[in-house]
Amino acid sequence: MARATRDLVGELVRNALELAQADRALPPIPPIELRIERPKEREHGDYSCNVALRLASAVRMPPMEVASAIAQRIMRTEPVADVDVARPGFINIKLDADWQRGQLLSVIEAGDAWGRIDIGSGHRVQVEFVSANPTGPLQVGNGRGAVLGDALASVLDAAGFEVEREYYVNDAGAQIRLFGRTLFARYQQQFGREVPLPDGGYQGAYMVDVARRLKEESGDRWLENSEDPPSELSERGLQLMVEQIRSDLALLRVEFDNWQRESALYDQANGSDGQSTYDVAMGRLRDGAFVIEKEGAVWFRSEDLGDDKDNVLIRSSGEPTYFASDVAYHYDKFLTRSFDTVIDVWGADHQGHVARTKAAVSAVGGDGEALEVLLYQLVHLRRGEERVRMSKRTGEIVTLRELIEEVGSDAARFFMLQRSADAQMDFDLAAAASADPRQNPASYVKYAHARCASVLRNAEEAGLSPSSDHLEVLSEEQETALIGEILRLPELVADMATKREPHHLTYYAQGLAQAFTQFYDAHRIVVPDEPERSGARLTLTQASQAALAAALRLIGVEAPDEM
């Protein structure tokens, strides 16, 4: 498992700081967080540290003196080659070129697992995402949440966390009852009955398709049922909708470890001492005096926990609200299943629910700060300059399946991950469907991986193979730049896992593909009359292929050997 180069450098700087204090070149001070960063200008070195600027006032010394005291004590050992001090007090660090070249062998050995680190140390994290109501097919916006959640889970896994992906199936409440009544009406219409849809019923053509499927499966068995709607019909309809959701997500290469049903929270068989998870969670709120009754309803008193208003838990009709289900659900996550951290990936329209859900976690005995909510903005489809709002097939909103069928799962995932979650997205269908690498960044990165594979095949046919015997010949500008990009992935994984920002993967993949392309364009790799140089460049190509495969795997995109 790799260690980020930045961490190795940070250790040497930390040791130098402690040595400077031990030598009394600096006065003793409390521990301080070190920030090791990449300078914007390469001539300033590979890494830079501003610790002297941050310490200067505390130690009452000029920043340049502080920087010099630390820099003099940084060991010039792997991976550090040289250290200098720059005004107003930066410590600039240059890496050892031979050490960097030698790391290519570790990259090749890791293959598409390159970049894996262990900052998570087995910390248990649940990532819950998509969780769209099973009352209709997934829409394009759900696809953005799916890709963000799945890529974040992959990054956390690569960073050493124990990760579980979960889909929460809302199969209880008023919307589900309305779904059942709508489906029963559509089912009866399949037999020629003139039955109107219920008020507010689901109008989509997909309901007709589900009703037709039920007729094919079961004939007229539910026509004379005394229930309205028949419970078995509603349950089977929901099963079919969940199957479709699973199928659509599988097209996008999204798989879940667990599908948690809302109805299970109310099942006494799933609780303890004859109580359901919902009963236990509500009992926790009552025991903690977080429940009040007013206006005939039961409310969650959350103002003391950081929320700005009370929220209804149980309506005057006696029916629990969606929020009450959320309280029970998060009790189950934290107190029953004992996740250390829970990350909910929600659409930005749920922003108003964040504070009350965190408050509820604290109220039932969990750690509200251990609940993190990643909010993502809307997706707008366009084809070139034309805005796309409706499905060509049905005249309704474009579904996730339609998007994948038009552009493919690779482009869908790559494009969905190109912007940070808090930025609105314009998804260009024309660019995503294009096979031209100049228009489609997913194709550009995949093509770079395929080119690596092609170079290695051609070399084998010419009787040449990668060799680590003379890596010192890799000294050209494009070669050193490419090595630097390859070795950057472990620290990027650390940053993305810590900040919950998986979108940086697409930038990294494009930058790495560009660095390899520049190397490929500038230099002959297979040079039969220069076997030592060829062997070294083939090693660099092999490492490039591994790093590209690792980045694409984390994004969830295929890494083809031919295109």
Question: What does this protein structure show overall?
Answer:
This protein is α/β, with parallel strands linked by helices. Among the domains are: 5-95, Gyrase A, domain 2; 438-555, Isoleucyl-tRNA Synthetase, Domain 1. Helices cover 47% and strands 13% of the residues. The protein has helices at residues 5-22, 51-59, 63-71, 97-110, 140-158, 174-189, 205-218, 231-251, 277-287, 322-336, 354-363, 400-407, 409-416, 429-433, 441-461, 477-487, 489-499, 504-522, 531-555, and strands at 36-37, 47-49, 80-86, 90-95, 124-128, 162-169, 258-261, 291-294, 297-300, 311-314, 341-347, 371-376, 379-383, 386-388, 425-428. A 5-stranded parallel β-sheet has the order 7-6-5-11-12, sandwiched between helices. The protein has a 4-stranded antiparallel β-sheet with strand order 1-2-4-3. Strand 8 and strand 9 form a beta hairpin. The mean pLDDT is 95.
Overall spatial form? globular
Global structural class: alpha/beta
Helix content: 40-55%
Gyration radius (Cα, Å) is: 29 Å
Provide the low-confidence segments as ranges. Answer: none
CATH uppermost class of the domain at 438-555: Mainly Alpha
Strands of the largest sheet, in order across it?
7-6-5-11-12
Distance between the ends: 31 Å
Annotation field: number of helices: 19
CATH topology of the domain at 438-555: Isoleucyl-tRNA Synthetase, Domain 1
Strand content: 5-15%
